[in-house]
Amino acid sequence: MSTEMKPFYLRPPWNILFEISKLEKLTPWNVNIAYLLSTFLLEMERTGKVDFRASGVALDSSALIYLMKSKLLLTLQEPPAPPKSPQDFVPPPLFLPLRHELTSTTIQHLIEVLNEVLKGEKLPSLDKVVAQPVLPSVSDLMPQIDIFLMEIEAQMAKLYALLCEKVKGTGIIEFSSLIKGATRLESIRTFILLLFLAQEGKISLWQDEATEEIYIAMGKLNLAGDERTSS
Amino acid sequence: MQETKEQVASSKAEDKSAQESEKTQRCLKLLEAALYVAGRPLSLTELSSVLNTRSQQKTKKYVKTLMQDYSSRSTALEILELKDERYVLQLKAEFTPLVKKLVNKPLLSSGPLKTLAYIAYRQPVTQKRVIQVRGQHAYSHIKLLKEMGLVATERSARSMTLRTTDYFADYFGLSHDVSTMKRELKRIFGETGQDAEPFKDESGAESTKRDI
Amino acid sequence: MQETKEQVASSKAEDKSAQESEKTQRCLKLLEAALYVAGRPLSLTELSSVLNTRSQQKTKKYVKTLMQDYSSRSTALEILELKDERYVLQLKAEFTPLVKKLVNKPLLSSGPLKTLAYIAYRQPVTQKRVIQVRGQHAYSHIKLLKEMGLVATERSARSMTLRTTDYFADYFGLSHDVSTMKRELKRIFGETGQDAEPFKDESGAESTKRDI
Fold first, then answer.
1. Inter-residue contact C117 to C152 (CB < 8 Å)
2. Of A152, A179, B24, B179, which one is least surrounded by beta carbons within 10 A?
3. Which DSSP helix (H) or strand (E) runs through C1?
């Protein structure tokens, strides 16, 4: 029988409950029955293969191990101490001896910086909260975009390959999941590339008006009855 | 060996007085330690808490003894009593010019200092307003300033209000009274020949801004 | 009134010795002032410049006298000599936990300080071992201690080894030589172990936290 065919409970750690011949030889204190049984149940739930016979054997073995523990207790054998983190002498905290230290900041320094701060205070008026620009300014973007445009063919091919890989199965991917974790600039670049790809007919784009999510589908889209695609 | 009653009594008395003296020494050292590390005036309440006693009378007795110790000894340091029964350990003024070249560590780096200056000038000021003017970094500045005891927060129904502490006032030699302190700041600002215009503008605008 | 030759000579000698003593007193106070305001170890060169002398020998003599004054007096402060003939005035470490609440700057809490004590005591020690003994929290302790320059890591082929820095040794007035330092630490821990009653609570609480 290959290992893949073996039921899970014949693998460690559960196998200990199913190797009846070895049971009597083990030290019962080394077996955490609660852990074995609860993970056994979880594993069975996970695989969806409920095997009452295996459950019975597990229960029987557990009972046997409990019995062994009880017998040892009755003969007054001390259970071993639970495993501890290594014992070592931890000295008391070493308190740093404090030193008084005069500092050089004077009221003049305070006044100097106050002047700067108050100049800055004029900029953001409290009455009208200045709207933060959502996108970086054009001048910020342009130099980078130049380089970006020069490599656009290569970038398009790269993105197309990525899309092919990502849409496996459904054939559709949301823009938001495509740019997950990307910076704003990366997102903008990706979107521009998508527009180029759409123009070449390699992909189709449409937007859900309610959620504003943009969907990307591979190739020319032909969704019968979907009005948004035709427009 | 048999001891007479008198001997026992006298040795007990000696023990007791030795214990007393040891206790006094320990209290004096604790007060000295407190004044040394604080580097600012401490109230009788603060000093009592270090001695772990509720009796401010006792604390006062000890601190007076320590003051005498310091003044009788040949030292560059002195302990002074300020008004409101606060006490401070400091360098005698005559020595300051001779050693100040060794002092080169600022109280705060410039970012937190700016935030502090702003709070001092606009206090009481909401935390929200401070962040708007000083930016997101100011959250960490405020945390630091609170840890250092320079700034305190008050939480009102809808917002957090910031103000400077008495320690701040003591450090810069300003009044503990907020409005007097603000007048003092303005005066020094004017004297240092800073462009005082923005001040006037801002203080005019202030009353409308402050409470938003 | 006419004075005999002897009288003149003796009064001159008295004057001279009085002047000498006054000069000594002034130098001692200047050194004390310098060490107090600096709050860091000062070299003989720095101290000499305060005394306005080029003779480091003289400065050394004065600073040794000051050290003796401090150690003979009942005080919470101490002056230590560090390696390379540097000197520092500081609070005796035993007082730190009792007054640290009055300090107006962020300090290390007892968790990181215990980790520091363990590293100092067992160094060179692997980071893995420190985590095993002190718990997962110790990762952040180590980070903090490294940021403060108290602990340094060495990465060897298979593990990270931790040791204390020279700055650490200076801070505690310990030897820069590891084995000497460990002997010194043993003595300190032995001593504080006996009269460490006030810390017991903290260390008790700490050990229960450790294994989370």
1. no
2. B179
3. none
Q: Which fold has domain C16-97?
A: Arc Repressor Mutant, subunit A (1.10.10)
Q: Where in chain B is the domain with CATH 1.10.10.10?
A: 16-97, 110-210
What rounded mean pLDDT belongs to chain A?
A: 76
**The predicted structure's pLDDT at residue A123:** 56
pLDDT digits (tens, 9 = 90+) for C86-144: 999 999 988 998 998 888 877 788 889 999 999 999 999 999 999 989 888 899 999 99
- Which residue among C38, C99, C104 sits closest to B149, beta carbon to beta carbon? C104
pLDDT in tens, A120-144: 776 554 444 444 545 555 455 454 5
Peptide bond into A13 cis (omega under 30): yes
Measured distance CA(A103)–CA(A107) in Å, rounded:
12
Instruction: Measure in Å the smallest separation between the Cα of A84 and chain C Cα atoms.
Output: 10
Q: What is the CA angle B36-B38-B40, rounded to 5?
A: 100
Q: What phi, psi does A214 have (nearest 5°)? A: -100, 130
Asked if B50 and C102 come within 8 Å (Cβ–Cβ), the reply is: yes
State both tokens at C96: 């730190």
Contact B21, B13 (CB under 8 A): no
Which residue numbers of B have CB closer than 8 Å to A's CBs?
A: 36-37, 39, 91, 103-108, 110, 113-118, 120-121, 129, 132-134, 172-174, 185, 188-189, 192, 194-195, 198-199, 201-202, 208-209, 212
- Distances, alpha carbon B54 to alpha carbons A29, B23, B26, B142, C96, in Å: 56, 16, 17, 33, 21
The dihedrals phi and psi of A201, each to the nearest 5 degrees, come to 75, 10
Instruction: Report pTM.
Output: 0.60
Using a 10 angstrom Cβ sphere, with 0-12 exposed, 13-18 middle and 19 or more buried, the burial of residue A1 is exposed
Q: Which CATH class is domain C110-210?
A: mainly alpha
Which tens digit of pLDDT belongs to each residue from A11-38? 888 888 888 777 777 788 788 888 888 8
Nearest to A95 among C37, C113, C134 (CB): C113
Tens digits of per-residue pLDDT, A195-204?
Answer: 888 888 888 8
